[in-house]
């Protein structure tokens, strides 16, 4: 085993001997084989250069730029509320006032 960074890895892997798995890249073919950086960004729900960091509580979507509605927990991908809406709010995203 050489423990070298390969000149190319199979799609979805990177690093020394291609042992690391690419993150949640928008385009898995755009994961840099040397360090796993996602050139085209991350799928909804993840952020960071490697697209391995989920959105923090209260945010969702591409680059985690969306703000969840008025509920305790929402989907990190599309913002739909996974719990009941807070008092006084309605709808899938709990953004409509009663």
From TrEMBL:
<dbReference type="GO" id="GO:0005044">
    <property type="term" value="F:scavenger receptor activity"/>
</dbReference>
<keyword id="KW-0675">Receptor</keyword>
<keyword id="KW-0245">EGF-like domain</keyword>
<dbReference type="InterPro" id="IPR042635">
    <property type="entry name" value="MEGF10/SREC1/2-like"/>
</dbReference>
<dbReference type="InterPro" id="IPR009030">
    <property type="entry name" value="Growth_fac_rcpt_cys_sf"/>
</dbReference>
<protein>
    <submittedName>
        <fullName>Scavenger receptor class F member 2</fullName>
    </submittedName>
</protein>
